[in-house]
């Protein structure tokens, strides 16, 4: 009985776990490339996206499954996924640098890469302000400093503008839904929680351990959020909530979805996702009759 139950739960949880692997942050082994234009392999979708944003897309020779932006990345060879690396394919690509995801790439994979003689550099962006820093690091690594610096400056300006615009908004309690059944959310350690804070939202699970913790439905009900935001394209995501009109967000209709392509990765596109989150919280304030501070 129990083995079957475990298999059943794991099967139901796998899509959410894959999504969480993309939501988890990305760190540093301080290795440097010897070539002025090193051949790069990115072992996480967000890293591939950052490489292109830093102007080094032409040097990217391999990526992992779920790497889908920008469109040019779809033409690149796949060297595995979040849990597995095809070392033979990796050898054939002859990368100068393998870019790993500090919080996601298994340590066993990192150790194996090093033992095989690959040069490894890890990345981590836990906060919005760290994304432009990672762009600059990639620019240094890849020899595209000018393009990377321009992208980093543009991102910093956008982040600063959001902070200024929403700094005086009335606070709203928010449940951010990654998935349902099983229920996953973000803690205060996640960059999405920082976005909520910037937009005038208070993450009801900010103090929960872990970056993207599993939570019980009952714990969500107890916190009684004023707003529910889901990172999804599934138009049916609200249905499980309909019987629970004791929850403030359900009763008021303050239930919104944002484009997961913009919010699930710590890349420059997160700025567009942050703008969406700020916009839906603004709409929620209007619905609930909150007094808004004037725009700056």
Summarize the structure in words.
This protein folds into two domains: 2-161, Rossmann fold (3-Layer(aba) Sandwich); 169-288, Rossmann fold. Helix 5 (130-142) packs antiparallel against helix 6 (145-166) and helix 6 runs parallel beside helix 11. The protein is built from eleven helices and ten strands. With 296 residues, it is an alpha/beta fold. Strand 9, helix 9 and strand 10 (255-258) form a beta-alpha-beta unit. The model is unreliable at 1-15, 24-33 and 290-296 (pLDDT under 50). The protein has helices at residues 2-23, 45-53, 87-93, 107-115, 130-142, 145-166, 191-198, 217-223, 248-252, 260-263, 270-288; strands at residues 40-42, 60-62, 97-101, 120-123, 172-177, 183-184, 201-203, 214-215, 227-231, 255-258.
Briefly characterize the structure:
The protein has 296 residues and is an alpha/beta fold.
How many strand elements? 10
Total DSSP helices: 11
User: What is the end-to-end distance?
Assistant: 61 Å
Tell me the fraction of residues in β-strands, as a range: 5-15%
- Which class do the helix and strand fractions yield? alpha/beta
Task: Output the keywords.
10 strands; alpha/beta; Rossmann fold; four-stranded parallel beta sheet; disordered C terminus; single chain
